[in-house]
């Protein structure tokens, strides 16, 4: 059986002085094998201490964002075939490592919460759902699909340098998703909160976010849309 070689970042702060890379040989057990299958093989057959997040295995839950041969992506939908060997797997960049490939996402989700990612409406709650026209619903395409895996935000150099104040591509994509929602009445307050030289304007159009997004979304465009909305309301 053919095998592949993976070099995986290992770090257990409870026992290691510093991180190191560990090499594993994994058999290619099936056609269309994904990187997550290889990690599962290692965990279940070679080294049960290897630590990583995963849940759905289908590119839906956003748990297994990682850096694969220098590019952020989801292990569960990244085919082994075509990856240069040895496959180098590291945690998402610029994040505090909890253990091996598991990073601390607290700050990432705090930034998401900052954009108030929920409906704010002034109209009384209807008996059933709040309706949209098909055109209004279509406006949300390209932003509601975000699974908050963090691949975009952690690929952004502006966020690496100013992540304490720049909200980053994922949170800003979500901010724009609520600005575009026809049922939401808080656009003014949402724009007020974003009008800040760091929170929004630290995006320098590097576009790594767009390249990294496993759902092929375009956070750079969302950020530009917000900037345009802010410019328009000044006129
Ligand atoms: Fe859910 Fe990969 S395991 S997105």
Helices, strands, pairings?
Layout: E1 3-10, E2 20-27, H1 35-46, E3 65-68, E4 71-74, E5 87-90, E6 97-99, E7 102-103, H2 106-114, H3 134-138, H4 157-162, H5 169-179, H6 187-194, H7 208-212, H8 219-234
Parallel strand pairs: 1-5
Antiparallel strand pairs: 1-2, 3-4, 3-5, 6-7
The structure holds FE2/S2 (inorganic) cluster.
FE2/S2 (inorganic) cluster is lined by residues 54-57, 59-64, 74, 76.
Task: Provide a compact summary of the structure.
With 235 residues, the chain is of the alpha+beta class. 31% of the residues lie in helices and 14% in strands. It contains eight helices and seven strands.
The helix/strand order is: EEHEEEEEHHHHHHH
Low-confidence stretches: none
Name of the CATH homologous superfamily of the largest domain: Alpha-helical ferredoxin
Number of domains: 2
CATH architecture of the largest domain: Orthogonal Bundle
Q: What is the CATH topology of the largest domain?
A: Fumarate Reductase Iron-sulfur Protein, Chain B, domain 2
Cα(first) to Cα(last) distance is: 66 Å
* Top CATH class of the largest domain: Mainly Alpha
Relative helix content: 25-40%
Contiguous helical run count = 8
**Overall geometric form:** elongated
**Secondary-structure-derived class:** alpha+beta
> Order of strands across the widest beta sheet?
2-1-5-3-4
- Tally the beta strands: 7
